[in-house]
Amino acid sequence: MSSKKRKRREAITTFVMEQGVVTVGALADRFNVSMQTIRRDADALCEGDVLHRVHGRIELSEEFLNTPFDQRAGTNLLGKRAVGEAAAHLIPNGSTVFISIGSTPLSVAKALRRRKRLTIITNNLSAAMALSEEVSNRILVPGGEVRLPDRDILGDDVLDYFGRFRADYSIFGVAGIAEDGTLLEFHMSEVRVRKKIRENSKKSMLVVDASKFGRQAPTLGGNIADVDTIIIDRRPNECFAQLLDENENKLLVAEGDIR
To answer: What are the structural domains of the chain?
Structure first.
């Protein structure tokens, strides 16, 4: 396979993973090649489990699609609340905090409503609104297009925006965690933003409920070992016992420890 073809197919895979579904015509226009060329690319790319081709378009396989935000936010409320309270307990008044997208970081934002004089930098509009009730807070959000129904902002402009700041803490979740600790996401843009806020903060906090352990998502982005503090609601199944033992010094199991 030529280098040009390989790079085009890698770019097609990344684009479909970020969009969820893309037509063959749109891909032909984007990469300035014929639709027949894209169909041949699709035949090769859809031999695996991640992508499949349906009626003139390429889609991300159902098992790799993300659950709608409101549905995620409404599941395991007690566990996410416990994680949120445990994270908020570690963040004092007057801190500067990055908060990433997702329902569990939103739970942290809700728990932080008792704090004062926070500087919040976030692309999670629900988190920004939750913290706007405390008038001593300063809340900074990037410009760009709001992704619905998740009510967040993604893209290169967001990455540049986060790159202008330094924070005491970064709060983020992930779509899934593999048995070797690899962090998984649905979109490469989410990986890039998470990496940026982790690098630009003094203390990074991964906040997840146990359902994320073993959950599939197509995009790789770092490892649990890269994070300073890991806050979970409860321990997942035994497949992850060794992983958690290896990271015991940075692990906080929050359920039942709500303050």
So the answer is: 3-64 (1.10.10.10), 69-253 (3.40.50.1360)
